[in-house]
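User: Here's a chain of 124 residues. Predict its fold as tokens.
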Amino acid sequence: MARRPFYAPNAETALLERWRSDGRIRAVGALTCHGGLMSGKHLAGVLGISPRGLRQFLVKDDVITVEIHEGNKGSGETWYRLNMRALPPPAESPPLRIAAPKRPMTGPRPRNCGPVALMESRAG
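Assistant: Prediction complete.
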């Protein structure tokens, strides 16, 4: 009889899925901060992983495209670019408020208690 599968939050597949989704979100944020284009070595250094590990979860992504640019020595270097067409449109912002909201005063009205006498401390 086969065992029924159950949710294990620290199973290898769940950990890898969290690692990939967290790395993808951090990579999109880093690319956004750098203008949408970064070299693979720089992006991997920002995320704190190796460039080969970076390729594992970014190659199959729709939002991030991979480009091969020519390096200084003539060999190809991997660069990552944000695909702006794949990003969802920005949400509509609510209208700006010009005046402060008028709130009715609830509870007892504050009253003037008069002048308050200063107390001397015993410490000194």
